[in-house]
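Lab notebook: predicted structure, single chain.

Context: the supervisor wants predicted structures on file for every construct in the current expression panel, including those that have not yet been purified. This is the next one on the list. No modifications to the sequence; it matches the entry in the shared construct table.
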Amino acid sequence: MRLITVERESVFPRKRFSYSCNTVGSREDLMKLNKRQKAIIVGSILGDAYVQATGKKNARLRYEHGGKQKSYLFWKVKELQPLFNGTPRYLERKHPISGETYSYWRHQSFSNELLGYWRKFFYPHGIKCIPKTLAFVLYFSPKKTERLHKIISPFMLPMFAYKLCHNSLTP
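Prediction complete. Output recorded below exactly as produced.
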């Protein structure tokens, strides 16, 4: 997978960021996110992840997934290990209007300045939006597309399988 950006610095800044975490591990480990990890974070933010402000400069990444997407959440947390500690939590809530109980899995990252940057970039007025300066194209070769489909296919609901051109998923 190649990520081609017009304003690369706006998506993958090169600035050294400080990280705050109370773990035994080194803070330097958090600065070593690779391109794949950064792409997962940006893709998550463009999707349904939430970047929660935790101060003027810092933010944390919050994932919430229904029970059927539990393994997908665990995969994302494993891929982004330098940002997360512990395991996702199972939660149940009662819907305030319908009264139905629903369950989901949640995990939150450490608060850090890099996520604070992305919070400002994707939530300029406190509401998530796709910034006008974010002009990028994702190009996947056929081989990489096949690999991507194999990674995400276990997490696809059957009714969305048609979106993948993977032979094993087409009805």
